[in-house]
Amino acid sequence: MDADERIAELCATALEREGPVVFLTGAGISAESGVPTFRGAEGYWKIGSTNYQPEALATRVAFEQMPEEIWAWYLYRRGVCRAARPNAAHMALVSVEKVLGDRFLLVTQNVDGLHLRAGTTAARCYQIHGNIDFMRCEDEHPRVREVPTSISVDWPKARKLSEADRAALSCCGGGGWSRPHVLWFDESYDEELFRFESAMNAGARASMLVVIGTSGATTLPSHLVSIAAHRGIPLIVVGPDDSPFTRAAYGAPNGLVLKGTAGEWVPVLSRALGA
Length: 275
Ligand code: OAD
Fold this sequence. Notes:
This protein is an alpha/beta fold. It has helices spanning about 5-15, 30, 55, 60-65, 65-85, 90-100, 115-120, 165-170, 190-195, 195-205, 220-230, 245-250, 260-270; strands spanning about 20-25, 45, 50, 105-110, 125, 130-135, 145, 180, 210, 235-240, 255-260. The site of 2'-O-acetyl adenosine-5-diphosphoribose has 25 residues, from helix 2 and strand 10.
C-alpha cells in the first residue's frame, strides 16, 4: 500500500469514529514561513559576549535576572514572526476546520500566532505555549493583553529598550514588568492560560492525532502522542527528521510517518479529510 492509500485508510477510520481530529503542531510547520525552529541552528542569542541557547533564556529565572535583555529577545522574535506569512500547511488546516467544524481541534506549541493569522478559529486553537504578541502581569488571575502597538515590530537584534518601551511593558498597576505571554522551561502547564486539561481531554477523546513539525521535547505533546498510541487511534507524524514521535508512530498499529515537510504533506492530509 502506498502512502496516499494508507492516508486515505487512516482518515476514513478516523471519520467513522466519534471524537475530534486533533492536530498537534510545532515549530516545523512555520519553518517554510521563514520562522526559525526552536532547536535549529539560528536559535541561539547573544547577550554581552555570551551566547545563550533558548533553553537558558526562556526561563523565569533568566527573566528575573535580566528582564530588559529577555524582553529584547522576545521583541526581536516577535518581529520575525510578524514578518512571516502563513504557508500552505497553515492554510490547509484552515480548510480542514471548514469541513470538520467542531470535530477539528488544533493544539499548537508555536507562539508565532500564524495559525490564527491564517484563519483558524481561536476557540479551536489551543496555544499551549502562549503567543508572542501578548503579555501579562504576574497576578493570581492575570489579564492577557496585546504587546502595545507603540512597541516597534521591526526590532533589530542589537536594539535595546527605550524609556518609552519600558513604560509600555510595565504592569497594569504601574509597578514592575509585565512578562511575555509564553510558557517558560521552569514553569508548568495550566488550564487557565495554556489549556492543559482541555488538551488532555481532547487527546483522550480524539479519533485521530496528526503531529506536524515537532521534535517531541515537551511534556504535554508527549502525553498526547502516548495516549494516541495507547488507544490505537490513527497516529500520523509529519516531518523531515526522526523523533520520539516518529518512533511512536512506527510502533503503533495505526501509525504512519510521512517524511518530508509540512508544506508537502498537510495539503495531502487535508484533501484526504474532505477539504
Ligand atoms: P523544535 O525546533 O524542537 O523542532 C522542530 C521540528 O520541526 C524538528 O523535528 C524538525 O525536524 C521539524 N521540521 C523542520 N522543518 C520542517 C518542515 N518544513 N516541515 C515539518 N517539520 C519540520 O521545535 P518544537 O518541537 O516546536 O516550548 O519545540 C517544542 C517546544 O520546545 C517549543 O514550543 C518551546 C521549546 O521548549 C516552550 O518554549 C515552552
